[in-house]
Amino acid sequence: MDVDHSHTQISAEDALHLLIDGNERYLNGTSRPDKATPLELAAGQHPFATILGCSDSRVPPELIFDADPGQLFVIRVAGHVMSDGVAGSLQYAGSHLHTPLFVVMGHEGCGAVNAALAARDHGAQERSRIQLLLDAIVPGLPEFNPRLSAEARLSQAVKSNVFWTMKQILESPEGKIRVAEGHMKVVGAVYDITSGRVNFQMKDHIHAST
Prior knowledge:
The chain is an alpha/beta fold. The protein has one domain (12-201): Carbonic anhydrase (Beta-carbonic Anhydrase, Chain A). Helix content is 42%, strand content 13%. The chain is built from 8 helices and 5 strands. The protein has a 5-stranded mixed sheet with strand order 2-1-3-4-5, with helices on both faces. Helix 5 (111-122) packs across helix 6 (128-137). The relative contact order is 0.16. Mean pLDDT is 90; it is low at 1-7 and 204-210.
């Protein structure tokens, strides 16, 4: 991965507006053609935002945000679950690429979150490695009103999982330092696969069930 500190740093707010505008172009069918050439990209990367998202093949951040190659630093794992590797990638984005904005993006109908619900509420078990991933999601799952439909429960759990991952980032030693220094903004988002819209989830107080 190339590192270049010569690019102009934008604010987290400006980066967020770039993502919102890009999603609007995607929704309106006015996405721009890629402008960067392979030779230009080989010179270095200058992403303005880091996206931690789910591995679901229907949720490609570069397409959803109409971003050119080199504009987003993307980390993808099922259920956007935190791990040492993910944490290291996030730290690299902050300390070397200096992306001011970090977005944790879940999506409606997430299979990983649904499987974590089944494991918690019904004792369902997956293969060993998958189960480890689900076990990392379970602590952030909410308790439900028993009257909620299965669809509403999953939608609520997807949002809670976004906030759970955000909480882990913000409460890490590195996250606390960067936020205190004013060098990092973390926001949540949920992608609606049916409509193509990204709904940003803003919360003054991040918390999760434990």
